[in-house]
Amino acid sequence: MSEQVNNTSDGKLFELGVKLRRELSKRFTVGLRKCEKIFIPVLDRIGSHWYLLVVLMGDKKVELWDSLPAAKYNASRYQLAERIFAKFNIVRTDKASRQLNGCDCGIFVMNWLEDIKCTSHGSNKFQHASERVRVTLSLLNNPKNTRLKEVRESARRVVDEELDMLAQH
Description:
Largest sheet: 4 strands, mixed
Strand order of the largest sheet: 1-2-3-4
CATH class of the largest domain: Alpha Beta
Number of strands: 4
Protein name: Ubiquitin-like protease family profile domain-containing protein
CATH superfamily of the largest domain: Adenoviral Proteinase, Chain A
Keywords: Hydrolase, Protease, Thiol protease
Domain Ubiquitin-like protease family profile: 1-116
CATH architecture of the largest domain: 3-Layer(aba) Sandwich
Helix content: 40-55%
GO molecular function: deSUMOylase activity
Shape: extended
Distance between the termini: 82 Å
């Protein structure tokens, strides 16, 4: 059967695809071996909760960072990590600070990603509203933000409209 495939133009295309895959795999996986940590933000299957997998290459360990662990979902999050990293030890870290509401998981993950050492941001330091503003401003003012001018103009229009409405009352 493989000879039959190799004799066709599809077979040559298939061989080329296999060679390309091998080459790309070599090129990109070599770099992964040099990494100490790999950070993988994960959006759960429901699409409503972010958590973080921190792969510690040297220890062959994956830490699961979850700011809102729930018995109902813990097993599926753990099993996902096990399926992806079958040869690694999967542990739920106790360093992950807990969120106080149901909507700040993304902010927690972004904070952990900013902290390359992945040490916990203690709950006494974490202020939800100010943290949201800080993250928003850092994204807005990022030099790669090509829409900054447009966003500023839109914000000015909103402020002007609000001031006009206040002046009318």
